Amino acid sequence: MSSTWHILGAGSLGSLWACRLARAGKAVRLILRDPQRLAAYQAAGGLTLVEQGQAQQHAIPAETAAASGPIHRLLLACKAYDAERAVASIAPRLARDADLILLQNGLGSQDAVATLVPHVRCLSASSTEGAFRESDWQVNFAGHGFNWLGDPANPAPPAWLDELVDAGIPHQWTPDILTRLWRKLALNCAINPLTVLHECRNGGLLEHRCEVATLCAELADLLKVCGQPEAAQALGEEVERVIQATSANYSSMYQDVRQGRRTEIHYLLGHACRTAARHGQPVPHLERLYRRLVEQLNARGLPSD
Ligand code: NAP
User: Fold this and answer.
1) CA within 20 to 30 Å of 201's CA: 27, 57, 119, 298, which one?
2) In the prediction, which pLDDT does 61 show?
3) Predicted pLDDT of residue 1
4) Domain boundaries in the chain?
């Protein structure tokens, strides 16, 4: 079986993974959006990773989805709202024994992708690493963190985890990846939308403790109802800890809105509200928060789906 890492999406996280794997000597190929993006990438000469102020360029080969040849391992590194379309474009090249690693934040896109490619093993990742694009094809590794990987349908770890060790990508295999994804979603729902509505840094929410606590209580009840009691444990305390520890930071959603970029709200707060409705679980404060956020996005001319 080919051991090439195909990486779809050379944005922040995709570039971070691609550069670390390439510098560890692993075979990596980027899959870019279209011939224009491919030409721009080729003109730049490669991907540059900036780490602790040091920039290093990696001339990683790239192609578009329209190239030929089977893919046995694909890291999907686009945003949640692009995941289905991106996978549909590459589906004919995915081998029957392929592993598809989904890096998307939130929930909902993973199931949608798995339905599109039922012959492929879909693994999910939950990452606390932080990276941002300084410019096209140049990514800054801003926050060290960790990656949890797992497959809700199959607890057996894949053989290629050793390659992540070689590449210095911190990770752990967990059969409870859904719990991780739900916990991260809940933290996001309790913090990020409020930072947009109150136009504040994470620490600004210390002045809105009651509002945060009400959301945490609803989220914890929802997690229990939808079979994720572990993700509900001490949620309020962790949210408070995260707010304190990141008080000087602007949340990712705040930054997206400020910079006029589409958010992943549909896969975060939207997913929480849809799941609650499916279970008949009342979540009035989450629903109100969702409505206010959608209004705010619409007022700024940003999509809310
Ligand atoms: P990003 O910087 O916006 O990168 C996404 C990339 O996907 C872009 O380069 C985009 O191409 C590419 N793309 C979209 N559709 C494509 C297609 N059909 N074919 C090829 N490429 C396609 O996003 P990101 O920050 O890396 O985030 C990716 C996911 O990781 C998100 O769900 C995010 O929430 C999650 N995450 C990110 C971080 C972080 O620190 N950045 C941390 C944890 C989790 P163009 O460049 O052509 O637009």
Assistant:
1) 298
2) 98
3) 45
4) 5-175, 179-299
The pLDDT value given to residue 187: 98
Q: Pocket around ligand 1: residues whose beta carbon is below 6 Å from it?
A: 8-14, 31-33, 37, 77-80, 82, 85-86, 89, 103-105, 127, 129-131, 133, 264
Q: Is 184 a catalytic residue?
A: yes
Of all atoms in ligand 1, which is nearest to the CA of residue 104?
32
Cβ within 8 Å of residue 268, ≥6 positions away = 105, 106, 185, 188, 189, 192, 253
The predicted model scores a pTM of 0.97
- Ligand 1 pocket test, pick from 13, 93, 266 with the greatest ligand atom count within 8 Å of Cβ, gives 13
Atom 22 of ligand 1, residue of closest alpha carbon:
9
Each as own residue / partner, the long-range contacts of residues 205-212 (CB below 8 Å, 24 or more positions apart, any chain) are: 205/243, 206/243, 206/244, 206/247, 209/240, 211/285, 212/236, 212/239, 212/240, 212/243
Ligand 1 centroid–CA 89 distance in Å is: 16
Task: Specify the fold of 5-175.
Answer: Rossmann fold (3.40.50)
Mean pLDDT by 10 residues, the chain (305 residues): 87 98 98 98 98 96 97 98 98 97 98 97 97 96 95 96 97 97 98 98 98 98 98 98 97 96 97 98 98 97 93
Q: For 179-299, CATH number?
A: 1.10.1040.10
Distance 19 CA to ligand 1 centre (A): 15
Q: Which pLDDT score is estimated for 300? A: 95
